[in-house]
Write a structure and sequence with these properties.
alpha/beta, about 30% strand, six-stranded mixed sheet, single chain, about 375 residues, 10 helices, TIM Barrel
């Protein structure tokens, strides 16, 4: 069946286009002004039409987290994020026991086989447990440990769906870990780390080509015996080939840092991520897992630090447009095409012929009106 989406503002390849989008079954057929035959037509009525958002880093939403170790968690999160324009996700597992990680991975495989109602499951992102204790953030310190080749080799062997793994490259064994990840086509990410700039650059050479949530639990300029040393943030800026992700929820980074990241890294090297946890979508004043939902973010009980985002994908795009002044087409690129490219996932994240028809329609306020996954509507506002 061929579907025509007409009268919309197409956001593709980083620019706005007034054209028609044709979808054949689950793939994009064409973007053209020509009148091709079609079976049904969707009148976009002036809405933006873009690729669905791809979230390469999220732990949960709508009362679920992937570490719950249930198929229902994957299905519930998939449905919730689709209502906010996200069509593909990399479920993220925080530092935990080996048993918990293995159970969550097994349930991922089950959910993938059973099918999910909203955003598709691309593959798994492991965030930990090989971290610097000084940069643990809200990660459980009981599960932070040294690199264990027997452990990570076992995890890689148990699934073909591991896409990325975040670790601290200053810990002993990081070089072997980075090379192992590269050998197996897994994106190695620097995160929750106090590495200095030189260590971060050495890690890049050994396979760590991405920085997890830049500015959050990542080192910067610091003094040792009066001498200044650069950190991970500076390496990310100096290294044109290093990609980064940012939590653009408007809380983790203020507007000036959003603008700085965009200015220095540009629209091709930045991915927007939610890093959301189970409280995503919860109201102000709620308490979830002992964390306080306040000012649009989850905080530790003593309010000393953020403990996770409660954002959805549409909020990220809205903030980059309204807070950082990024053109909407490029904000969408950072929320869709870039994360898919960084994860090396094919045929996802763009409106282009041959790509999966993962599409979202939204208004000027980035309010989602329709979400399609593989050419099928999974959410719409009547």
């Amino acid at each position: 069946m061929i579907t025509k989406i007409s009268n919309g503002i197409i956001l593709a390849d980083g620019r706005e286009q007034k054209t028609n989008l044709y979808i054949e079954d689950d793939k994009i057929l064409a973007l053209t002004d020509e009148n091709l035959p079609f079976d049904r037509e969707i009148d976009a009525k002036g809405l933006y039409v873009s690729a669905g958002f791809v979230d390469m880093h999220l732990h949960g939403a709508a009362g679920h987290e992937f570490l719950d170790g249930t198929v229902e968690a994957y299905q519930g999160i998939s449905a919730a994020v689709a209502q906010h324009g996200t069509t593909a996700i990399a479920p993220t597992l925080a530092a935990s026991s080996l048993e918990s990680m293995k159970l969550a991975i097994e349930k991922f495989e089950e959910a993938l086989a059973a099918g999910v109602p909203g955003a598709k499951l691309l593959g798994i992102h492991l965030e930990g447990p090989y971290f610097a204790m000084s940069q643990k953030g809200a990660q459980d310190p009981r599960h932070i440990r040294d690199f264990d080749p027997a452990e990570y080799e076992q995890i890689v062997a148990m699934t073909d769906h591991l896409l990325s793994w975040t670790a601290a490259p200053e810990r002993k064994g990081a070089e072997a870990f980075g090379k192992f990840m590269r050998q197996h086509g897994i994106l190695a990410c620097i995160g929750h780390s106090d590495a200095n700039c030189k260590t971060a650059h050495k890690a890049f050479e050994n396979g760590f080509t991405h920085v997890t949530h830049l500015y959050s639990c990542t080192s910067t300029v610091h003094r040792i015996n009066a001498f200044r040393h650069a950190g991970i943030i500076e390496e990310a800026y100096l290294n044109d080939d290093m990609t980064v992700e940012i939590i653009a929820d408007g809380c983790h980074l203020p507007d000036d840092l959003l603008r700085l990241v965009y200015k220095l890294k540009g629209p091709d090297k930045v991915a927007l991520v939610t890093d959301s946890m189970r409280a995503a979508g919860m109201p102000e004043g709620a308490t979830v897992d002992g964390l306080l939902i306040e000012d649009g973010v989850a905080k530790l009980p003593d309010r000393s630090a953020f403990a996770g985002s409660i954002a959805y994908g549409d909020r990220l795009v809205r903030n980059m447009v309204n807070m950082a002044g990024v053109p909407v087409a490029l904000a969408v690129k950072m929320a869709s095409e870039n994360p898919a490219k960084f994860l090396r996932v094919e045929n996802v994240g763009r409106l282009a012929p041959g790509y999966f028809a993962d599409v979202t329609l939204f208004d000027e306020g980035i309010n989602i009106k329709m979400t399609m996954v593989n050419g099928k509507e999974v959410y719409s506002v009547q």
